[in-house]
Amino acid sequence: MRLIFLLSFFLPALGFGQSDRVRQFTKTLCSSEFHGRGYVNGGDSIAAEYIANTFKELGLKQIANSYFQPFSFSVNTFPNELELKLGNRLLVPGIHYLVDPSSGGGKFEGNLLKLTFDDLYNNKFESKKIKQGTVLIWKNTGYSGDTLKKLNQKLASLRSSAPIIEVVNSKFTWSVSQESRKYPFLQVQDSVYNDSISRVAINIDAQTIRHKARNVLGFLPAKKKTDKTILISAHYDHLGQMGSETYFPGGNDNASGNAMLIALIEKLKQSPLRKYNVLFVAFAGEEIGLLGSQYMIKHPIIPLKDIRFMLNLDIMGSGEEGITVVNSTIFKKEFNGLLKLNKKLNAVPLVKPRGPAANSDHFYFTEAGVPAFFIYTMGPNKHYHDVFDSYEELSFKAFDSLSLLLEKFVRKL
């Protein structure tokens, strides 16, 4: 671990090009030593220190004598034992199965009780049928629309009665939760299940904890003294660990966004803006409900009225298909400026407009009256909230040209 922190101090002095530097920064954030930048083994705290050290090395100033803004929240975690055995086969977490983020823990070994379509859709199943040691299993494949919605509602009503396994054939997508239920709830890929399996063994350590997180802040003053500021942000937290062995690297989401912060710091530090300060923020708590940005709105580091514009960045590791700009339909002047710049620079193949969305840390700022864009790249890399969202899967195809586009956009505000 000491080596990682030393790297944050010495990398800038090694003479790497920008692309090499941001790649190393991204790779470090994705490493197993950061535990998926979540709430097991203090992964997000390790990342916060690393980012703050990098801000310091790059010459950003503290705000109120600190690079941090602490806050706390409850979160359901799975720090230790995590085992699922179907029949005689021990399954691999993250590959064969996921534990629902609000799942309860405990040890359960017994028979599988198979739920049918009629049981759920037509309310034919009664919870009193559940015997001690029974685990419910439901094959949720081939349903969609209102039918699926109704099935899921009935399944959810049974979560307080017994452990449940849901067999699916869709891509795994994990998340985190502040809620903890009584019994385990798991999703299993249908490729590792067949109807002849009748026995199951579950062992899950689930712990709801009070977690202290920190937004990471760095300040770049304008050439002329001013209160007016541009905010550039990216969340650094990710999903963390599911059990003691499985972690979610969060390469595209959002180590790559933090790497873009570093690239923009390097560019803007060379020639600070004349009219605006720049506040760089790496938000914590985004994955659990935009908690870091919500906290900053309630406890502003600088007056919100002084923020000229917010640029929030996520999923910066591809770009083969261009970028999407959330809030472009609200802030049309700034969006048209971005379009003109992209046409001039030919930075990305498409700048796609999108309306307002509560899907990242820009949301609460926009609600509070701060003009903001949320920008993310589009490309063939579809790994999202899964164990395959690794550094190795990032193409960085449009990274350098996009960093130039974003720099020019900020300078023209």
Characterize the structure shown.
It is a single chain. This protein has 413 residues and is α/β, with parallel strands linked by helices. The chain has helices spanning 2-10, 18-29, 43-57, 117-121, 145-157, 251-270, 291-298, 332-345, 362-367, 399-412; strands spanning 68-77, 82-86, 89-90, 97-99, 106-115, 135-139, 164-168, 185-189, 199-204, 207-220, 229-235, 241-242, 246-247, 277-283, 307-314, 322-326, 351-354, 372-378. Strand 12 (241-242) and strand 13 form a beta hairpin. It is elongated and about 75 Å long. The relative contact order is 0.16.
Set down the secondary structure blueprint.
Layout: H1 2-10, H2 18-29, H3 43-57, E1 68-77, E2 82-86, E3 89-90, E4 97-99, E5 106-115, H4 117-121, E6 135-139, H5 145-157, E7 164-168, E8 185-189, E9 199-204, E10 207-220, E11 229-235, E12 241-242, E13 246-247, H6 251-270, E14 277-283, H7 291-298, E15 307-314, E16 322-326, H8 332-345, E17 351-354, H9 362-367, E18 372-378, H10 399-412
Parallel strand pairs: 5-6, 6-7, 7-8, 11-14, 11-15, 15-18, 16-17
Antiparallel strand pairs: 1-10, 2-3, 2-9, 4-8, 5-9, 10-14, 12-13, 16-18
Helix pairs in contact: 1-3, 2-6, 6-10, 8-10
Which H/E pattern describes the elements? Answer: HHHEEEEEHEHEEEEEEEHEHEEHEHEH
CA radius of gyration is 23 Å
Shape estimate: elongated
Helix/strand-derived category reads alpha/beta
Largest sheet: 8 strands, mixed
Summarize the structure.
A hairpin with a 2-residue loop joins strand 2 and strand 3. Helix content is 28%, strand content 26%.
